[in-house]
C-alpha cells in the first residue's frame, strides 16, 4: 500500500503500464475455457484472490444467495411493521382485540402480539393506499432483480475460477482451505514459467500480482495522502476530523474506478485520454 509521505511529480508518460507490459496478451492454459480470473496483462485479477480468501465456490455462492434472501426478509418485515401492525393496540392505547372481535374488551395489561396484527385484507388495503409504500416496493423489487442477475453472472465467473484452480493450479475445491495465499501465489508464478499465460512477460513476480490486486486501493490511499479526496474536515470546537463512510467510499469508487464515467477503461488500464497531459484540465473539469 502507498505510505503516508511526500510525493514528487514524475514526468508525464503516455503509457500507464511498466515497460514491457504495454501489449500483453492473455494465453489460456490448454484445457481451460477461460482465464478463470487470472487476467493479465502484468498481474493477477482480484477475483482469484477473493476466491481464495472467501473459501471457494460453495461459500461464495451461498454468501450471494443469502444476501438475496436477507434483502427480501428486510423488505418484507419492514413492510409488515409499517402496514400490518396496529400500534395503538400493541401499546394498549386502544382496548381492541382483533383475534376476538365479539368478546368483551380485553384487559389492557394482557394484550398479545396476535391482537395487534391486522388481518391480511386490511393489511393489503393499507399497502395499496400508500403511494410511497408502493413506490419503495417497486424500487426494492427492481434492485433485487438487478442483484439476482448480477449474482447469476457472478456464479458463472466463480465456476471459471474454480476450474482454473482445479485444472491449472492443481488445487481441489475441497482442499482449498488447506492452502495459504502464499502457496497459491507460488503456483501462479510457477504456472507462468511453464505455460506462458502472459505471452509478453516471461517472469511473473509477486509485485505484479499485488499490483493488480491492490491497484485501486493504492490509488485511493495516495489520493487521501495528497488531500485530493474530501475526507478531512475542520469542525468548530472539534478541530480536524476524518469522515469516510461506506456510502461515500462507494460513491468515490464508482466515480473514479468502475463507474460508466470512470478514469479506467478496464480493471487495470487508464483511458488513453487520461494519459495525455494536455487533456488533464478538461478531464478535471468534466469530473
UniProtKB/TrEMBL annotation:
Region (Disordered) location: 1-20
One Gene Ontology cellular component annotation held by this UniProt entry: autophagosome
Subcellular location, record wording: Preautophagosomal structure membrane
Membrane-topology descriptor: Multi-pass membrane protein
Coiled coil feature spans: none
Keywords: Autophagy, Lipid transport, Membrane, Transmembrane, Transmembrane helix, Transport
One record GO biological process: lipid transport
Source organism superkingdom: Eukaryota
Positions of transmembrane segments: 68-90, 129-146
Pfam families, per database record: ATG9 (PF04109)
UniProt xrefs under InterPro entries: Autophagy-rel_prot_9
Biological role: Phospholipid scramblase involved in autophagy. Cycles between the preautophagosomal structure/phagophore assembly site (PAS) and the cytoplasmic vesicle pool and supplies membrane for the growing autophagosome. Lipid scramblase activity plays a key role in preautophagosomal structure/phagophore assembly by distributing the phospholipids that arrive through ATG2 from the cytoplasmic to the luminal leaflet of the bilayer, thereby driving autophagosomal membrane expansion.
Family of this protein: Belongs to the ATG9 family.
Protein name: Autophagy-related protein 9
Amino acid at each position: 500500500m502507498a505510505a503516508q509521505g511526500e510525493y514528487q511529480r514524475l514526468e508525464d508518460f503516455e503509457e500507464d503500464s511498466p515497460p514491457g507490459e504495454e501489449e500483453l496478451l492473455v494465453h489460456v492454459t490448454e484445457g481451460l475455457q477461460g482465464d478463470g480470473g487470472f487476467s493479465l496483462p502484468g498481474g493477477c485479477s482480484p477475483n482469484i484472490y477473493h476466491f481464495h480468501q472467501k473459501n471457494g465456490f460453495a461459500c461464495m455462492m451461498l454468501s450471494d444467495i443469502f444476501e438475496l434472501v436477507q434483502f427480501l426478509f428486510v423488505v418484507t418485515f419492514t413492510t409488515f411493521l409499517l402496514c400490518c401492525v396496529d400500534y395503538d393496540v400493541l401499546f394498549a392505547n386502544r382496548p381492541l382485540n382483533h383475534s376476538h372481535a365479539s368478546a368483551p374488551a380485553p384487559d389492557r395489561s394482557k394484550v398479545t402480539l396476535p391482537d395487534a396484527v391486522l388481518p391480511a385484507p386490511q393489511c393489503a388495503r393499507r399497502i395499496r393506499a400508500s403511494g410511497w409504500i408502493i413506490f419503495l416496493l417497486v424500487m426494492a423489487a427492481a434492485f433485487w432483480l438487478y442483484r439476482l442477475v448480477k449474482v447469476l453472472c457472478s456464479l458463472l465467473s466463480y465456476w471459471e475460477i474454480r476450474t482454473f484452480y482445479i485444472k491449472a493450479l492443481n488445487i481441489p475445491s475441497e482442499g482449498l482451505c488447506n492452502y495459504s495465499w502464499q502457496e497459491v501465489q507460488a503456483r501462479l508464478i510457477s504456472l507462468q514459467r511453464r505455460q506462458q499465460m502472459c505471452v509478453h512477460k516471461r517472469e511473473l513476480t509477486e509485485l505484479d500480482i499485488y499490483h493488480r490486486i491492490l491497484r485501486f486501493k493504492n490509488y485511493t490511499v495516495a489520493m487521501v495522502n495528497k488531500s485530493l479526496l474530501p475526507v478531512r474536515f475542520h469542525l468548530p470546537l472539534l478541530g480536524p476530523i476524518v469522515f469516510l463512510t461506506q456510502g461515500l467510499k462507494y460513491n468515490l469508487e464508482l466515480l473514479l474506478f468502475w463507474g460508466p464515467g470512470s478514469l479506467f477503461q478496464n480493471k487495470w488500464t487508464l483511458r488513453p485520454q487520461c494519459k495525455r497531459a494536455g487533456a488533464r484540465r478538461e478531464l478535471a473539469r468534466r469530473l
